Amino acid sequence: MCELLGISSRFPTRATVSLERFARRGGYPASAVDGWGIALCEEHDVRLYKEPEPAADSLWVRFIEERRQSTRLLISHIRHATRGRICLSNTQPFIRELGGRTHIFAHNGQLEGIKLPHGGASGRFLPLGETDSEIAFCTLLEQLFPLWRDGTIPPLIERHEIVAHFAADMRSLGPANFLYWDGELLFAHGHRRIQAGGQISPPGLWLLKRTCPRDSDALLRAGASAANELGPQKLTLIASVPLTAEEWTSLGDGELVVVRDGEVLPTPHSEVISNQDEK
User: Fold this and answer.
1) pLDDT confidence of residue 196
2) Low-confidence ranges of the chain (pLDDT < 70)
3) CA pair distance 34, 228, nearest whole angstrom
4) Most buried in the list 26, 216, 224, 235, measured by CB within 10 Å?
5) For residue 106, is it within any domain?
């Protein structure tokens, strides 16, 4: 299956060690060798690098590491193609504009039978490629469009409720692990994935929280280095599998977490979406 990585931090962070370890999962003998991408966010915009080639052999990955570009929010994806050609338009993460902000989406899993929404809120979100993941992203943006169309930031509880309903719909179609950033918040949804023994089961994502002093050695142990800023650095890393020997926490089957500036936020008191009708 594909691999996901997300990093949210209080202060700008350079994802050096984590990116290197993550990239190794996108090369032989790993199966995810059909493309990779990384989004490095700057305020409401993003630096997007991606190519339909193995990440482990990519000179671009080395360029990103050598440049040591700082960011407070990173989303990366390594592809194992199951639907759609091996080409740039089918390579994740995907980005779109909504409400004057860049929105980012990356998905791991197979969503059998997913179709483009018809008669949606805007009809403006159409895929460039052929993947189920991009169709899912367009579907999510259609559902979110009414909240963002006037250009104001919607309340967290309303955003969370829509993303939670979307996640439940996707779970009914197949494994639906995803990372979604709306220009302010990182939503991470864990479901199921192919495990080492070949079975499809939870966990689909793992999470690591760190509060570190600003010295570089402590941050390197967390898988990243940080720019010199006052106060402690707070980091939340989310990945398909643990990338370090630290104590990662697995997300539950269908668990949705929201992260801002390196901290996991309390779950809003919106409607609870159950798994009872899932396949």
Assistant:
1) 81
2) 1, 17-18, 26-32, 117-122, 214-230, 269-279
3) 36
4) 26
5) yes
Segments forming the whole domain that contains residue 187? 3-110+174-264
Neighbours of 69 (CB within 10 A): 17
Report the helix count and the strand count for the chain, using DSSP H and E.
Answer: 5, 16
Distance CA 117, CA 98 (A): 17
User: How many domains in the chain?
Assistant: 1
199 burial level (CB within 10 Å; 0-12, 13-18, 19+): exposed
| Cα–Cα nearest to 122, from 139, 142, 151 | 142
CATH no. for residue 178? 3.60.20.10
Whether residue 159 lies inside any domain: the answer is no
Closest CA to 5 of 90, 73, 101: 73
Assigned domain for 129 exists: no
At 14 the pLDDT is: 80
> Would 19 be classed as within a structural domain?
yes
Cα distance between residue 51 and residue 253, in whole Å: 31
